[in-house]
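Page 42, continued from yesterday. The earlier attempt failed because a stray header line got pasted into the input along with the sequence. Redoing it now with the clean sequence only.
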Amino acid sequence: MAKNHAFGVRGGEKLARMGLAWFISYAYYEKADKSHLAWKKANTYPTRIAAYNAARSYHAEWIEYAQTADGTKLEKNLIGLDQVTIKRMAKILSACDPQKTAVNG
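This time it went through. Structure tokens are written below.
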């Protein structure tokens, strides 16, 4: 998992536990494309899924954040996604129905 650095966004400490690239990858799997499985490359994915589910109230904000995040930091992930792919997936997710993207919390 990513070193425990908080992102500059609400719930950043929670996002740091799963990693921004992993979060986008799993959200993309959940909401856009069930064939996308890059998130499974992290052997800690069961723990990350629990963190993902516990932080649903932040999802919409994190998806927006990912679209403008530092690309060099996005490249540093364990699941093999490049910054262009991550930002493209985040853009697709931002266009999803908000009810699917975040639970009102």
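Notes: The CA atoms of residues 63 and 94 lie 6 Å apart.
Reminder to self: strip header lines before submitting.
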